Amino acid sequence: MTKAWMLCAVLAMSAAIWSQTTPPAKAPVTPAAKHAPAAKTDAEFAAYKAVAQLPDPAAMEKGADDFAVKFPDSDLKGLLYKTVMRTYQGKNDAEKTEQMGRKVLALDGDDPEALVMVAEILAERTRDTDLDKAQRYDEAMKLAQHATQTVDTDSGIPSGTPEDKAAAYKGLLLSNAYSVVGTLEFKQDNFAAAETNLRKSMDAFPQQPDPTVVLRLALSLDKQGKYPEALKFAEQAVTLNQEGSGAGKIARQERDRLVLLVGPAKPAEKK
User: Which of 127, 159, 151 is nearest to 201 (CA)?
Assistant: First the structure.
């Protein structure tokens, strides 16, 4: 999981908090953009809150399943499963995170957060030795690309959310979607396409560059012979990735290799 997902999940929790504190109301018919879901009855709302406030993800998952049986027509089912998904993600349980993400998508195939979450797990956890590697990569690509098309229309951001927080949430979703696409292109040696999408990822959320994205962009540029620019991003990757980590070691090896090729990166000129 990328570090950006942690902030993404925090921002996204505004939707869950809104549903816990807002009285039941019916959503508008055929809205231009998807609105946050709302309870239809007080009983449904109380049951939703009881499950959403459970601290244990396994208990929350069971509660969500029971809620879905008791309230089969509830608009809050997907929101509950999304809350469980985020909770498992916070516990670094990728398998359960993917399962809950797929439950969200079974209810709403356009949900950008679930689309990106499942796509990211597929992209990062697929091994070269997996017999279904091609199918997993193909699914991840389709999910991530679809997310780039639904961020603006299907994020379900509650009305009244401050504009800067709504923009940050959408920016993070878009950044992570392009990160998945870029990662998949990188892993399949399509380095020009990887560069394009990794740049889009950084541009979508420039206030918090993802260390893995920066490193993969440096490597993608290197593979294309764009050594001076590759060095610039390798230097940035070194500052973002902890020295003792696997990514940190790769970043430092990449920087040192590029320095031998083109010399040290020149400091930015003062204006």
Answer: 151
